Fold this sequence. Notes:
The structure is a single chain. The two termini are 54 Å apart. By secondary structure, the protein is an all-beta fold. A hairpin with a 7-residue loop joins strand 14 (231-241) and strand 15. The protein is globular and about 85 Å long. The model is unreliable at 1-25 and 867-873 (pLDDT under 50). The longest helix has 16 residues, at 2-17. Helices cover 2% and strands 42% of the residues.
Amino acid sequence: MQACxxxxxxxxxxxxxxxxxxxxxxxxSIGDEQYRPAIHFxxxxxxxxxxxxxxxxxxxxxxxxxxNPSGNTWGNMSWGHATSTDLTHWKEQPLxxxxxxxxxxxSGSVVVxxxxxxxxxxxxxxxxxxxxxxxxxxxxxxxxxxxxxLAYSLDEGQTWxxxxxxxxxxxxxxxxRDPKVFWYDSPNGGGYWVMTAVEATEHKVLLYKxxxxxxxxxxxxxxxxxxxxxxxxxxxxxxxxVDGDPANVKWVMVVNINPGGVAGGSAGQYFVGTFDGTxxxxxxxxxxxxxxxxxxxxxxxxxxxxxxxxxxxxxxxKNGPFADAPAAGTLPGQNPVTxxxxxxxxxxxxDGDWPVGSMSSxxxxxxxxxxxxxxxxxQHPRVSDKLDNTPPAGDLLFSGFEVPEGTTLADAGWTxxxxxxxxxxxxxxxxDFFIGAKxxxxxxxxxxxxxxxQGTMTSPSFTVSRNFMSMLVxxxxxxxxxxxxxxxxxxxxxxxxxxxxxxDAGALNWKGWDVSEYAGQTAQLxxxxxxxxxxxxxxxxxxxxxxxAAIPRSDETxxxxxxxxxxxxxxTGANSEVLDWESWDVSxxxxxxxxxxxxxxxxxGWGHILADEFVASARPATPRIETYDWLDYGRDxxxxxxxxxxxxxxxxxxxxxxNWDYANSIPTSPWRSAMSLPREVALTQTAAGPRLVQKAVxxxxxxxxxxxxxxxxxxxxxxxxxxxxxxxxxxxxxxxVTLAPGTAxxxxxxxxxxxxSSTVIGYDKTMGKLYVDxxxxxxxxxxxxxxxxxxxxxxxxxxxxxxxxxxxxxxxVEVFAQxxxxxxxxxxxxxxxxxxxxxFAEGGTAQLKAxxxxxxxQSMFVPTPDTVKKGGR
Length: 873
């Protein structure tokens, strides 16, 4: 009672302190929140990731999923549960399999053990059996290991009992996970259970067999193959008839990967081949490529840097980050480095991620249209010319928090509430790139440090005497939709006129405001921490009044082209130890002198860069990653696997509609993450061999109401943007559009538009690619890796047309091109009420052949219609 009373009192104090500073949010019904999908599954609240245990049984589709029952970021991994009779109207069920003090419950699958091979049920009541990864905690005798375990249900998947003899398959590995199990009918009669699971860091799928789900023996291994730039996860293996021909059946091996996806971060790749009950043999693995044709500019295969100037940071244990000579490959402590050519490469992992430095090539003349090179390592783009942490010229406020020993900010005139009472500040712990010894850190407040500490702290008054304010800020941030406040505020006359926060990072970096309109006025700084949960704290240091805007430190790992002393092209890695081709169009610099500068200015995770084989060429090199077969070319389709026990042998897949690059930061509350629409997949014969085609299941299209807008007669799309009538607008709709590129270099359609922003879906005729551009799609500032332009190779049909089926929901687009041969799935977070639809063309005139817009009825958080047939068939 005392604790509850204290918490309530703290809330009253904090609410009073913030009065007038933060607008109150009106209560919103579940299902109607901003960004809440209308036709995609989301849990009512809290974090969700991988779909697990998807199975059809007795007319019901079961969707289990990775779930944090206690918060809105990853953690406390358990299996959530939802059911549906039509794959569109989902009902959330009670938590299925919960984390405990011994283990987290990672991904896996569910089978209907019809013959009771496991003995968990009976002939009259066969069990549903979950096969999942136990991720063992410190309290377990299997501490640090991942192994496969069982649980069973005798009540239609509602409650589960963990098998007493778990784990049933243990390799003493820390990265053995994600079992997908199916029954294999042997051509010779009989059958057995087959499991696919991964050794994630080895890029291998391991196959096992069992007669009873409890005792497993090895069958074979598959991999490494094709994309290996990240961890392999969530495998699946299933047969499909090519173009429906039962005499021509191929097997599809799905392997999800993170990072290392075609659009960056998380994605799913697949292989087509054969399975004989023991071994999967891929027929679609790509061979290694040769160097692109052209003139070598720099290679590192003779044991030297060939005249490059190397600047290694002094004072490290080793001469890092670049040493004095190229690396021969993988360095000590590094995961295997692949994809480079010859016997040497630039590898700045010498002495680990901590050392920083740079190296520059001798000058050379630009004589070709393209400069091709191999790049890998960390994904830290260049953001400015500033590589150090020196403060700008100006006036330091509050003595940089370097108060005399034995005193606090209370002695310096600060006031506060709750856990941010100034007697707790400043501190000497937490954060990186602070200046001096002391800083404000709202994690280290009150009697018990942590992200759940809350309060406010307000500075003494000062006069705004310069045009700008700059400060070092780190820690977390909160989107307005979270209902929490975590920020540094500038107060003038008691009103909040500026605010900023961290980037969910330990490193402090320079941020600030233009305050010229308040010149000569009295102001205060206020720190507000109303946040709980992960990154629920702020760090602050070195607040200054300056004469120039704040310049953020560039914590980059980059390869740059320098012309006339300026960086004119830049590239970074993809958080991968696999190098792949990057191409720069340098035609505008032909005849001029240039140099290559490689920069490692990052001390933390993936704080290194890889580079090799710079070649001047007439044509751009094709990244290897683009030649592989991908389930989806967008940023938000991951951990995709198929339903088991399906009627009519249909193969329906579902993926997590998020990306680990920014998953914990998307601006949704009280839930985080959605599932994709369920997709029926099939194989069709192409020039490259059998390949997947995908379409949303027919039940999704049954959500369609009357067509709201249609054009059937062809017409030209002149250069520019042309809004369709309001009858075509919508936030939840299916758009079928057929375009002919004509003379236009780019053409297409934009959705979820507001006049200021939109999501653009187009075809680039020059590149031969379909693309989704979300760089101006609305709320994009919550994470630096969210903005993207994602593309997929698409060839117009025999009539020269590009046919698209687009599913638009309140916070996503799923694009199916050319009958589902290519798909792009992306989350977007549009402005409130954004619904406009427009056509566009660039560089010439395109042709609209047809467009049909069909609104889709909401299926989530609404009653299931009585008309839905059992099983959705």
